[in-house]
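User: Could you go from structure to sequence for me? I need the amino acid at each position, not a summary. C-alpha cells:
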C-alpha cells in the first residue's frame, strides 16, 4: 500500500480547513470580535478622556490594541488617552514617575489589567515594586503584622489599593498593645495618618530634646497628652504653647503676682527648692538687704503678709528709740546705717541760713534728739548787753543769716529809721548810742549845741 506523504494537505483536508476558517470569520464578524476578548471591560466612570468616561465605552479594540505591523504599541495608546498620567512618568516626585523609576520595564497593563469584568478593579499592584514612600507613608516600619506574618496590601486597603480603611491602624495595633492603643486613640483621635508617616517619627525612638522644648527633670515622666491636650494633627502638636503658665496656671499659689515665667524661680527638678527673684516683688532687695537670708524676714517659712516697712525688722536696732518715727528710709538707705541724710526740714525746726552749717552735736548734746529746745536762747544764751530789755526771742530783731545787721522790733522812741538809711541816724548801730549794757542814752553824747559827731545832725 502506497504511503500518502501529503497528510492533511489533501483536497479533502484543504476544503475542510477553508470551511472552518469561513465559519470562524463569520462568527467573529457576527460577534463583533467578542470571541477574542477574555472578558468585559471595566465600566467605572472617571475623567473624560479620548471621548469616553470609562473603558467599557470604547467600541474599537484598535483604540487600545495595536496590530503587529503597526508602529504604535499598547503603551503608546494608553499614553495618548491618559496624557496627564504620561506627563507624570517624567517626574520622579509624582507617583507614576516614582513607579517608572523603580520599575523601568513595567507596562501600564501590568498594574492596570482590564477585561476582568465591568466592576473589577483596574488596579493590581502585583506587577511591580510599588514606591509606597511616594504617597507620604513609608512601609519601612510595617513589614510584619501583629500576628507575625508579612504585611500585604489588603491589610490596610482590603481589596482596593485606592482606598484606605480608617480603622485598619487601630485594629492592627490593638493586637500589639491594646491598652496603649486605646489610650492613645482617646488622647489623639482615630486619624492615625494625621500624625504618623510610617517611619515612626513619633514612635518609641522619638526624642523631644531634638526640639526647642527640652524634656528635663520631672517633665520627662509626663505623658504626651498632658501638654498636647486634644492634639489631632501635626500642626496641633507643633503649636502647643511652651510657656510654663500654659500648663501650671492652675497650680500657681502666687495667683499671678510674680508673672508667668515659672522658670525665673523654679527648675524642672521640682517646685522646691526655688530661687526667688525678689525684684519681681514689691519689696526690692538692694544694698545690704540683698545679703540677708530669707528666714530673717520670712519667719517659719511664711511669705504671704510679710511686712515691708523698715521698723518691722529694725525696731530692735533703733538707737533713736522711736524719736524719729518708724520710717527709717527717711534718713537711711539699704547700703548702710551710717549712710544717713537727715532732712531737718521734715521737723518743726527747719535749718536755714547759718543754721544749715551747724554740726548736729552742737544742738543735740550727747546724741539726744527728742525734746531738743528750739528757742534761740537755748543755744545762744541771753546776751548781757540786752540787759533783759528785748525778751528771749532773738528772731524779733535778728535773722538766721547773720547777727548783724539787726532790725529793732517796733518804733524807736524819738528817732526815726534807726538802723535804716533815712536822713536821721541812718546806718547807725545800736552801740553807737548805747555804749554799755544800759540802754539809756543822751543826745549830748553825740550832739553839743549845733555841733555833732558821728554823722548825726539836727537843731539846737
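Assistant: Here is the amino acid at each position, in order:
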Amino acid at each position: 500500500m502506497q504511503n500518502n506523504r501529503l497528510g492533511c494537505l489533501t483536497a479533502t483536508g484543504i476544503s475542510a480547513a477553508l470551511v472552518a476558517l469561513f465559519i470562524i470569520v463569520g462568527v467573529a464578524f457576527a460577534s463583533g470580535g467578542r470571541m477574542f476578548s477574555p472578558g468585559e471591560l471595566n465600566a467605572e466612570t472617571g475623567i473624560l478622556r479620548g471621548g469616553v468616561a470609562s473603558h467599557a465605552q470604547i467600541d474599537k479594540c484598535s483604540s487600545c490594541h495595536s496590530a503587529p505591523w503597526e508602529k504604535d504599541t499598547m503603551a503608546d495608546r494608553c499614553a495618548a488617552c491618559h496624557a496627564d498620567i504620561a506627563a507624570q512618568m517624567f517626574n520622579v516626585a509624582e507617583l507614576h514617575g516614582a513607579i517608572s523609576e523603580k520599575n523601568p520595564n513595567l507596562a501600564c497593563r501590568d498594574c492596570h489589567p482590564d477585561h476582568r469584568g465591568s466592576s473589577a478593579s483596574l488596579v493590581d499592584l502585583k506587577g511591580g515594586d510599588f514606591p509606597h514612600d511616594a504617597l507620604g507613608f513609608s512601609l519601612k516600619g510595617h513589614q510584619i503584622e501583629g500576628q507575625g506574618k508579612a504585611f500585604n496590601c489588603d491589610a490596610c486597603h482590603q481589596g482596593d489599593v485606592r482606598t484606605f480603611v480608617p480603622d485598619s491602624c487601630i485594629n492592627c495595633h490593638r493586637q500589639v498593645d491594646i491598652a496603649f492603643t486605646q489610650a492613645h486613640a482617646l488622647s489623639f483621635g482615630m486619624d492615625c495618618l494625621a500624625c504618623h508617616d510610617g517611619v515612626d517619627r513619633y514612635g518609641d525612638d522619638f526624642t523631644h530634646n531634638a526640639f526647642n522644648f527640652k524634656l528635663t527633670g520631672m517633665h520627662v515622666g509626663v505623658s504626651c497628652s498632658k501638654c498636647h491636650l486634644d492634639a489631632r494633627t501635626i500642626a496641633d502638636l507643633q503649636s502647643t504653647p511652651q510657656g510654663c503658665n500654659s500648663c501650671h496656671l492652675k497650680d500657681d499659689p502666687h495667683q499671678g503676682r510674680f508673672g508667668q515665667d515659672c522658670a525665673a524661680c523654679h527648675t524642672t527638678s521640682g517646685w522646691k527648692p526655688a530661687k526667688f527673684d525678689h525684684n519681681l516683688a514689691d519689696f526690692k532687695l538692694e544694698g545690704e538687704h540683698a545679703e540677708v537670708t530669707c528666714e530673717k524676714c520670712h519667719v517659719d517659712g511664711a511669705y504671704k503678709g510679710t511686712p515691708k516697712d523698715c521698723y518691722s525688722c529694725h525696731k530692735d536696732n533703733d538707737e533713736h528709740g522711736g524719736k524719729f518715727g518708724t520710717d527709717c528710709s527717711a534718713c537711711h538707705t539699704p547700703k548702710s546705717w551710717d549712710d544717713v541724710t537727715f532732712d531737718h526740714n521734715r521737723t518743726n525746726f527747719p535749718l536755714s541760713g547759718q543754721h544749715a552749717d551747724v554740726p548736729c552735736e552742737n544742738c543735740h548734746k550727747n546724741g539726744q534728739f527728742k525734746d531738743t529746745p528750739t528757742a534761740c536762747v537755748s543755744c545762744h544764751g541771753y546776751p548781757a548787753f540786752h540787759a533783759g530789755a528785748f525778751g528771749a526771742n532773738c528772731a524779733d530783731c535778728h535773722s538766721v543769716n547773720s547777727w548783724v545787721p539787726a532790725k529793732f522790733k517796733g518804733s524807736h522812741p524819738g528817732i526815726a529809721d534807726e538802723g535804716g538809711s533815712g536822713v536821721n541816724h541812718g546806718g547807725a548801730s545800736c552801740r553807737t548810742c548805747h555804749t554799755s549794757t544800759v540802754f539809756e542814752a543822751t543826745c549830748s553824747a553825740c550832739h553839743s549845741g549845733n555841733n555833732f559827731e558821728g554823722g548825726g545832725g539836727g537843731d539846737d
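One structural detail worth keeping in mind: The first strand starts at residue 332 and ends at 333.
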